[in-house]
Amino acid sequence: MAVAVRGSRGGGGSGFGGFSLRSFFSYRIFVSAMFSLLFIATLSVLFTTNPSTPHHDSALPTTGNAYMRRTFLALNSDPLKTRLDLIYKQANDHVTLVNAYAAYARKLKLEISRQMRMFDDLASNFSDLQMKPSYRSALFGSDGPLDEDVLRHFEKEIKDKVKVARLMIAESKENYDNQLKIQKLKDTIFAVNELLIKAKKNGAFASSIAAKSIPKSLHCLAMRLVEERISHPEKYKEEEPSPEFEDPSLYHYAIFSDNVIAVSVVIRSVVNNSDEPWKHVFHVVTDRMNLAPMKVWFKMRPVERGAYVEVKAVEDFTFLNSSYVPVLRQLESAKLQKFYFENRAENATTDTHNMKYRNPKYLSMLNHLRFYLPEMYPKLHKILFLDDDVVVQKDLTGLWKIDLDGKVNGAVETCFGSFHRYAQYLNFSHPLIRERFNPRACAWAYGMNIFDLDAWRQEKCTEQYHYWQNLNEDRTLWKLGTLPPGLITFYSTTKSLDKSWHVLGLGYNPSISMDEIRNAAVIHYNGNMKPWLDIAMNQYKKLWTYYLDNDMEFVQMCNFGL
């Protein structure tokens, strides 16, 4: 009974298990068979597609489909075809690299035509190699097995050319990389230079605006002085001219300016450094607008130590009219007025070289009074002309003792090397200038000039000035300003003075030696950075503010010297 029961259970279980195993193995066999058939069908389709088409064209392969087709063909037919395919791929890669370097060389316009020709020849050789009849028929012309000896010879030629290509690229790579850096550097320099030119133009325009504008402190001072004149008219009545104004035995100075504070500094510096200040006479000429402030200043702050000051307006010299003075006549020209007064700000930065000459001060009568000194002061024999942007540091009476050798103008020359020669101020392409003057002649400076008025009258210098100023109405002989006509007028009548009498450049040159400045009789703030402006150079400004009258109440109220 016991055995029967065990046997029955075992038999029943064995029957059920056998059925399950047979079903499972039958299913696996079926799936395997299906996958095998699908794989065979796929291979059949791949290997029978375009069977008659050669797998290599006359050119090197470039597409992925061609590469894949050759790969399957090589696997299916001949192992040597795989080797051939790898050789072609290597050759194709080097052809691409060689062509890239050749194109790059052409783009950079390198002066190495030999290397460019070698690159082109090498690229052609790669492409032409497969066109050889022996290789074309043995390797590319049939679908049968490849000739191993031909393939080995073909591989050797390809590797030789690859080796040559690599050597050429290695030799040329550094050169081409340097050329790329040079080209990039040139592009950068060009771009930076454009920015620099633009910045210079904008800087020159801003500097010009700052130099031309009237500082708030200077405007304040003029208004305070006019207010004082209006509030106390009894204090400022006109007085009879002093006889010293025409005494030729005294030391006479001419200062033409519309800047009250600048004139006061010039006169204070002369008086404070003179040995006999009571022998010095200052002739100040200003415009009608600034006549009252100028007179009130010297009434409120009389010159110390006995010096004399005469203040006049340009209009007090009645002979200075448009019928006699070329500059005044030219100012009435509509063309010249347009040149000066219609110079709009948006166009100003397009002509930085000539921007400064568009300042109307260059045709201001105050600026041209220096050419009429003998007529303005007919009883004087000598006079010292001073600009309003100078400071006197020593006694100047020695200038009257210099023998000018019959010359009219005593001035300090400014030329050095090729700089500050006549060629820089006059247009020597004009025949009149070219015939009369030497382009290498040395220029001199205005700002401190001792004039022999008797020699001036004898040489008829004012007539010479009129002649040339009339010829230059269209600005073809020189640009504008007073130095070019001065160089022409006193071309052969100027005596050079020692440079220590007059040191220039404190209005633009930050590198002037302090020893040179200390040894100078007169220092000149020529340039845009005037000492009364905020843009003045600090290392020089104190030399000017030293003579500023800080005790004057209006100076304190208007914040001068801060």
TrEMBL record:
It is found in: Golgi apparatus membrane. The keyword Transcription regulation does not apply. The keyword rRNA-binding does not apply. Its main location: Golgi. Keywords: Cell wall biogenesis/degradation, Glycosyltransferase, Golgi apparatus, Membrane, Transferase, Transmembrane, Transmembrane helix. It is a single-pass type II membrane protein. The chain crosses the membrane at residues 29-47. It comes from the Eukaryota. Belongs to the glycosyltransferase 8 family. This is Hexosyltransferase.
